[in-house]
Amino acid sequence: MDILISGLLLGGTYVLIAMGLNLQYGVARIMNLANGEMIVLGALASFWVFTTASVSPIFTVVLIFPVALLGNWLVYRYLLIPLVRRAKNQGQLEVDSILATFGMSFILVGIVVSINGEYFTYSFLASPFEVLGSTVALNRLVAFVFAVVIALVLYLWLNRSRAGMAVRAVSVNSASARLVGINVEKVSALAFAIGGAVTAVAGVLISTFITLDASVGVMFTMKALIIVIMGGVGDIRGAIIAALILGLVETAVATLIDPGLTLAAAYLIFLLVLLFRPQGLFGKPQT
Amino acid sequence: MNTARTLLETINLTKSFGGLVAVNGLNFSVKEREVVGIIGPNGSGKTTVLNLISGALRPTVGSIQLAGQQISNKSAHHIARNGVARTFQLVRVLPGLSVTDNVMAGAVFGRKRLWKNHALNHAESLLQRVGLEDKRSLPVSSLTYIDQKRVELARALAGDPQILLLDEWLAGLNPSELQTGIALIQSLSEEGRTIVLVEHVMDAIRSLCHRCIVMNSGQLLASGTPDAVLSDSAVITAYLGED
Amino acid sequence: MNAASVKNLSIAIVCIVLAALIPFVFNGYWLSIALTAMMYIALSTSWALFSGPTHYISLASGAFFGIGGYLVATGMSDYNLSFWLMMAIAAVVATVLAALIGMATLRLSGVYFVIFTLGLAEMIRNLVSWVQNNFLGSRGLYVLTDFTEAHIYWMLLTVSVIVFALGWVISQSRLGFAMRIIGNDETVARHVGINTAKAKVLLFMTTGFFAAIVGAIIAPRYSYIEPNLVFSPELSFLVVIMALLGGMHRLWGPLLGVIPFTLIWEAISIWLPNFTTLFLGLTFLIIVYFLPNGVVGLLEKLRARVAT
Q1: What mean pLDDT is reported for chain A?
Q2: Which of B68, B160, C116, C193 could bridge B80 with an S-S bond, Cβ 3.0-4.6 Å?
Q3: Closest approach of chain A CAs to the CA of C263, in angstroms?
């Protein structure tokens, strides 16, 4: 039961990360391998304002969203659009964007290390809290609630608003979206920016209950990618289920066997997905 | 013609994509040295049939036999080695390779599996056959559309296939190129090649095909000589709609 | 053999002889840099045999390299087995692992492959540490041999020469021709009769084989081995960046990336140790935006401009 509760709470934050990456990969078609660094930046920002100005991470969420939004938009506009324009096919864009985002990821790690090479340790709402008979840290619960609320808002925005519909249209078929008068570049930039901003917010939330440092970004990138692939690229519902599964399995392995094996557990899941459902949990077999 | 053996046969061939049934219980056969046209309105499943035969797709139900051997459970490269060669609806040349290398690709890995000078000589003779002998040293991306289609045809022929699948090979050619193209396929037919072609150009169908099958919504609507099927009232309705 | 290949072969032999003489001219610091460069020449060139034609970015080098180093250390330290036997075992293990990874991922799109290899070295390191801590008892592994740095250097040179020779043989073979076709259009490749999955898995196995051999040869250099040292994700990225920097459309391309990069990397490690990661990132961006075909591509472009 303890595993179930903490697993679901962890999975809640993973949902947010996966939604962010899904917007970037599923809509803007950029395989963003600097995704984990966005989490680290969010965490660093949260740590920094908490320790220097005692600003609550809850407020940092509000603060970081527009900053990350702008930052990611600039990255897409000035670094990634040139790659999109010069790519002759999807394969070339994939390779280019993988290499470019690797570069960005290393640059971000380099910058974060030069700001703070230590662990981002701070204590926020670290008091025990009782949920359905299990004791969890209050910060985990708060992070989970925030993640759920943000994911819900994002989901409604995608499904109910005009801009959200344009985003979904580009995700399904960018060529046809262009034909009905959608500015694909603009929508992609928007999706990339929002995806990055959501990821940074997830970083703030995670930093309240997991101690991060500059080097862990790549692990989060890895997990986000596994979730997105397990859920099916572009499939929000699949991503939510996949995130919860990963959260549960990681927590179970960490509690029952060894915390050092969570990555191995994630790999096992990934391998099973690749072998049996490469199109995602709910995806139809590809043609 | 009737004494020739059956080279290709589909039995209850069916392919569905999720809810959409693109090919539905199709039975037809192609005899050796025969040129068979597959025609039908857009979206009737013609290209899907070629994709199923060449192994790009696996049938949902049913089977395909090549010279009595089941090929529908085999992968595309296996089917190619067994002697099925194809061209693509949107021409697919290998842009980083020379014209000669493009054609050698078929010779080296197709049914003949030639190598080195044998493959080179074979490729050169095919380039001459399709009328590209002057252009073999040009970069393939600088070729005109019909020349790229010629490269693709030569590549398909280079493997000495038992059966040649042409997916709208004549589409997009101008009237004089069209005459050249039809004459080229005609000469292949006279050589004794077995050809299945998906085509919208009715002149080509009339002059090239011994037999036609007409598809509509994934099903076989009619089959017979081109003149017979093209005057069939069901076929005319499928193409032009009800009055 | 025509005049051009005689010329190329002579150049190659002169280069090999010159490279073999380095330990007699330099020792100490410069020999150790030459050794590092030779290690990356073997790794990057064998990496490019697979990634050059397919454009698949493999980040598995660190994992295979680690398997080489770790198995040599375990075998020699815990079971008193010979260095050479362990090197052979490590090569077999890495090749089999590469085959399994290849079969699971290479039939799918390239993205799955990149992601799978991205965390591979880290995952294997976690597993190895876990097994070591829980079942074998945690203790250091010692690789004690009579090899000097010069011996290790010559062994790596031998491996590099074999990699180059193999690369040349492949480029003249059906497999090499198949890889060029796959790199251009995989669909066409399948439809002319190429078993694309088999070709890709075979070359990926080659990469795994050589990375493990190099890892095994390097182990005596460190004497003391622990999982954190040999399963290094950074190594995978360095291999990728050097190969891309040199250019992958020529067999000798990675060589032109390894030599300058190793020197600059060494200089930065000494003078600006906090900026190595930043430098790695900048180099990636420079390659993507300014040197898409690497140094070789740049040289070829300059030569074409001079010629006209």
Answers
A1: 85
A2: C193
A3: 20
